[in-house]
Amino acid sequence: MNGPTETQDVEINLAPLASARIAYTLNNTQPVRCSFIGTQPFFFMDTEEVLEEDGLFDGIPLDVLSENLESLHHKIKSYDAISKEFQDDSTHINDLFSEDAAFISSPRPNETSIQQLTDILIQSRFADTLLDYAKEHNVELLYSTHVKHSEYDRDAGKIFINHSLNLGYQILLTSIELRRVWQHKNGALVDPIAFYPDHAILINRLQEADLNAFMIRIAWELKLAQQNDAWLLVENSPFSDLGGSFAREACTDFRSANNGHALLSIVESWFLSERCRTHDRTLIQRMLAGKSPEGFSHSQELSRQALIEAIYALGKNPYGNNYLAPHIHLLVEDPIFSEVRDRSNANFLWFVKFESSFTQAEQELQRDESVDATSYQLERGHQNHEAEIIQFPKTASKASTHRDGQCDIVQFLPNFKHREL
């Protein structure tokens, strides 16, 4: 046969595949590898085909058959080598799996780990102040494997941090949750759905931007104290733009870290980024999911007043000036802070506003109908008066003297029982 044979066309080199495995991931690690299965896909025949033994190899040269056998022999050797390698590593792999299983089922870490975390945080003046504030309000910092990253349980008064995360992540997440405690206790952690839809978008954005701003501020203060773990994560994460804004202001004027100018630069960078789209979508989905809580969503004017108070509470600090108070009017009036620029989110927000206005009009109509029904019942009540009987003396007309020379005159008076005079 001239040219490449069929066997040469399908022959493959197994050397690059020696490092290929099918593996699983557990807690961001990859400790276990499975055995090598093969390079050909599995398939199942729907019909059974009977091959005749006679003439099966008729017409095939012997040199082609020998080449096929040699190729098959090389494959078998490769499979044997891979299987032997896997068997040699099986003990180590099982040990890794046991370690991960023990890590998942292990009890809560001892309190010394929390102490190490707080020892790092107190090197930041602002974080130290927030820790003291949390203790004053009986909020406890704990490790837990039942949260993905971190969580502040307002009802239980506890902050849970996942101890399996990197120390830098733990510092950043703890900073966020400590600031969230401050928001909660100062009346700034209000559910955005309680506001008018446009105002809900703004307060939801400001709450998240405030958390990121103070997270970066604490990381910067720790960097100045030679604790670089948190700041290195800020520089090499999606928060690098926010960290760069804060660092520029702080390096230009060291007082800007405390007077609020550096924090305002973070808020401005936050609103100009694509973070608005993500948080808007989450909030609008909540609006579409169910009934909003009791609040100011039914009145745009009341919602605006509550929004101003919430922004003022959000800008408070344990020390220093209120960094949002001088800019409340700009935050409320400027469309760059409250405008929904994503078309999909804007369409769904319009639907939420339309449904809210329709519900409000329906409630007002029902209220007017109930008032009209009450007025009608009052009018009917005035008409259904009771009678009072008055007897006149005998000097009445002859036509009416049918009972001892007297006559009865019926007079209708409201709310009196009938009586005889």
Q: Oligomerization state of this entry?
A: single chain
Strand content: 5-15%
Low-confidence stretches are 1-12, 14-18, 41-45, 395-403, 416-421
Order of helices and strands: HHHHEEEHHHHHHHHHHHEE
Quantity of strands, as a count: 5
- Adjacency order of strands in the biggest sheet: 1-3-2
Count of discrete alpha- or pi-helical segments spanning 4 or more residues? 15
What percentage of residues falls in helices of 4 or more residues? 55-70%
Supply the helix-strand structural class: mainly alpha
| Distance between the ends | 139 Å
Radius of gyration: 40 Å
Largest beta-sheet characterization: 3 strands, mixed
Gross morphology is extended
Mean pLDDT: 76
Provide a descriptive summary of the structure in words.
- By secondary structure, the protein is mainly alpha-helical.
- It is built from 15 helices and 5 strands.
- The strands form 2 sheets. A 3-stranded mixed beta sheet has the order 1-3-2, covered by helices on one side. A two-stranded antiparallel ribbon has the order 4-5.
- A hairpin with a 4-residue loop joins β2 and β3.
- α4 crosses α5 and α6 packs across α10.
- The protein starts with 5 loop residues before the first helix and ends in an 8-residue tail after the last strand.
